[in-house]
Amino acid sequence: MGRRDAIAAVKAIRNVVGQEAWDSLRGEEVTPGASIKTDEQILAYLRDTAGTNYHPSCTCRMGNGDDAVVNAEGGLHLLGLITSTAAHCLARHPTASL
């Protein structure tokens, strides 16, 4: 991602969250903050604060115990009421950094 893309991403997020549909959910902007307005300010903020993070995956316990997240077939345990497929237990999937 280049500088222009990063600046555009901040502006796009602000545009989405600034929509009327978010009015009842939105508070004051926390990051980068309302005082960060120009492209230069946005880029400086990103340079000072941006980073990467690795998110471990495929680490959930499978089975029927209290600490199991998915059953032996990969179905997600949710209060015993809903079963859904969980990607957390996939044996093969692409890895990525956040």
TrEMBL record:
<feature type="domain" description="Glucose-methanol-choline oxidoreductase C-terminal">
    <location>
        <begin position="4"/>
        <end position="77"/>
    </location>
</feature>
<dbReference type="InterPro" id="IPR007867">
    <property type="entry name" value="GMC_OxRtase_C"/>
</dbReference>
<protein>
    <recommendedName>
        <fullName>Glucose-methanol-choline oxidoreductase C-terminal domain-containing protein</fullName>
    </recommendedName>
</protein>
<dbReference type="Pfam" id="PF05199">
    <property type="entry name" value="GMC_oxred_C"/>
</dbReference>
<dbReference type="InterPro" id="IPR036188">
    <property type="entry name" value="FAD/NAD-bd_sf"/>
</dbReference>
<dbReference type="GO" id="GO:0016614">
    <property type="term" value="F:oxidoreductase activity, acting on CH-OH group of donors"/>
</dbReference>
